[in-house]
Amino acid sequence: MIRAEQLSLSHRDGQRRLPVYEDISIHMKQGEWMALTGPNGCGKTSLVRTFNGLNLPDSGSLSVAGLDMRSPDNRNRVKRRIQLVFQNPEAQTVGATPYEDVAFGLENRGVEHGEMKQRIEAVLGQVGLAHKSGAAVASLSGGERQRLAIACCLALEPEMIIFDEATSMLDPAGRNDILRLARQLWLGGMGVLWVTQRMEELAESPRIGVMQSGRLLYDGDPRTLFYSSSLPEQLGWEPPTAVRIGRLLQAQGWPVHLLPLSERDLEEIL
Amino acid sequence: MSLRTDHLDFGYEAGYPVLRDIQLEIKDGTLTVLCGVTGSGKSTLLRLLAGLYPPAGGTVERGTAAPDIPSLVFQQPETQLFTGSVHKEIEYGLGRHGVPKEQRKDLISRALERVGLPYGTFAERSPFLLSGGEQRRLCIACALAVSPGLLLLDEPTAGLDPQAAQALLQLVQELRSSGVTIVVSTHDLDSFLHLADQVIVMKQGAVHYDGPAAPLLADARILSAAGLEPPAWARIAQRLVQRGRLERMPAAVEELLADLAGQALPAPVAEELQVPGAAGVKARAADPGAAALSPSSDTVPEPAHAPVPTGWRSLDPRVKWLGMALGSLTLLGMRTLLPLLLTAALIALLLRSAGIPRRRVLRFFRPFVFMFLFIWIVSGMDWSTPDYAWGPLGFSLEALQRGGLSVLRFLLLLALGFLFTETTTGAPLREGLEWAIAPLRRLGVRTRNWSLAVTVTLQFVPWILDRLGRLQLALSSRGPRTDGRGHWNPRQITMLMVPMLIMAIAMGDELSTAVESRGYDPDKPRSTAVQLNWRSRDTAALLIVVLTAAGLWWCSLASRGWLG
Predict the structure, then answer these.
(1) 233-262 in B: which are within 8 Å (CB) of A?
(2) Which residues form the domain of B407?
(3) ipTM value of the model?
(4) Tell me, what CATH number does B33's domain have?
(5) C-alpha to C-alpha distance for B131 and B152, rounded to whole angstroms
(6) The whole model's pTM is what?
């Protein structure tokens, strides 16, 4: 799905060049779930925006869904295959109602009126907003707005959705709601790149990428990251409680493959 | 500073109470955690405690501690930073509180020291260019500089990365041990609950629980009744206690770990146990317990209640366009009072029948009324041959009349525009607009982009008003306004405009990225989701519009005496 080789991007600041990200190589298969993390300003947002053609890297090669991203036409075409849900729920609605908002992307692609209506109703139903299809966007909660953003992505029938800290401005209820919806889509075969700073979400992801100052420090499974590397300490993370308990077990001689990553794991073994 | 509230009630609008019968007592030097789901009234309560809103009923009593100033730090740093440098940012509040100039620098550097931003490095930097965590600290420094007896923090860790959030937590603990009374409103119970001396759980505008943290941690039902979840470590500890693996409920995650470390937990024989999570997240999410996932399953969807426009509001936008255009032309030709009054009556009737709330109408017209009144008075001034003289000011009757008519004409033009945008929104507005400017397409103008830009801009008017409201609240929380009448002086207005512009630009940037990210297909012409549909009632309405305009036109000519 994504083949990135030695991607680098930098911004010009007067005489200097400030690296945004450097030497990033990532391969993602179709239908994979990967979590990407790193502190604010580490380059994760710029990187994931490169994947759907919003940014152009300075060097390296990138092919997404078989499209070579050097060509401007492909950078436009890729948006049909990979869609992005942004962080700020207020800054991604174009329409005055959910119906019009989903319509926007379809209008841009010249989808015919009857088909458009069908598709809009289907995706609004899929994210649980069918009953609010004609409501004013301003009356939606933050969580509902993010669900609407997901519906807008789904209407374009992508193969992968990138969630760029899509839950960081929501309350806990909204956060769980969006995470569940993303998981549901993933189970249905959608590829998901889940950008997050929450440790529990990382620990429960089958694959994790860790970025720091523009570099990809780690790309692998959660068990190795939390139990067999010194990276969490180096980065000053506070691991989730389940992992902290798991480390006690590890100290008592438990093998790594039995150690818990989530509350549910912990419940199974204790 | 201690704090007591007695039967506190509050609502932003009559008939919609936000807070009901709040009885609280907060002791001096304690850390109180205020929690509740979104919309439970936490932020509003903080604003009342800070004295920013007057209660509708009941009282807030503050203790007698010497500097009796509560300071509130709002949720978003971008709505509460106003000036060009960190030094000036803090100095503003000190100035408002009447601190003499020579003492200010000392207080500023001490406040910055306390939040971990050294004066030498940060004083001259721009608040707008600091990182999120640094901005949060600066906001706290602004609050601390006036040495408040009470520090109120609204969601201090929201939007920070884990490291910055940890550091902020540390800061709150340090302030608490240095004797500052702190109230923190937060969703982040994992970070704050175990630090609290007192926890207040809000539910639907009332106090659901008020007391120490321990009972909340031991019994998840109290929090879950308010729609909240205990911290992850407390959930784990509860289960361990239930199964007899722990003797008592620990008070914090460290205690839980220490208790567990003391126990021997032998590793199971490999075959005895299923490898946790071996089947991956997929299996877990497929579990029916975890997978009762459909967002609509937990909330019963309300029946479809899209506000269907009724009456003349539902007319084709093109009729409304033509009505506005004809009306405006007719208005511009009016030179006498009678047709203008008739038009005013007609517009008033339309405003009423469109069902636009009176408050909205007043809010829209209020600034114009004052401005136009001023213009009218100025236009009536005459020094050479005044009909009335009032001191050095002279007014001419004829000039007053002429000015009055022009002012009324413009007011009515504005009212027509207001009527149009209030009764036509979103896609119909865009399609109507595009239809009206379609002839420009022949000149190579991209009409679609223009109509899209106009509709998106109109949609952001409420957003801008909301942000402006927040900025004003944040500025007034820094200290009293210049005069008692609640007006801002020109310097303060400039201070409000800078962050407003920065926010608007940031918003525009994010929005355009989102629009670009949706993409388009260059090979196909655009289609439309909303198709305009001209019905016979639209023709009838158009006929009425034309006849009315003709009637008013005739009236305007007749009253000028041209037909007499």
Answers:
(1) 233, 235-236, 239-240, 243, 245, 253, 256-257, 260-261
(2) 315-521+530-559
(3) 0.90
(4) 3.40.50.300
(5) 22
(6) 0.85
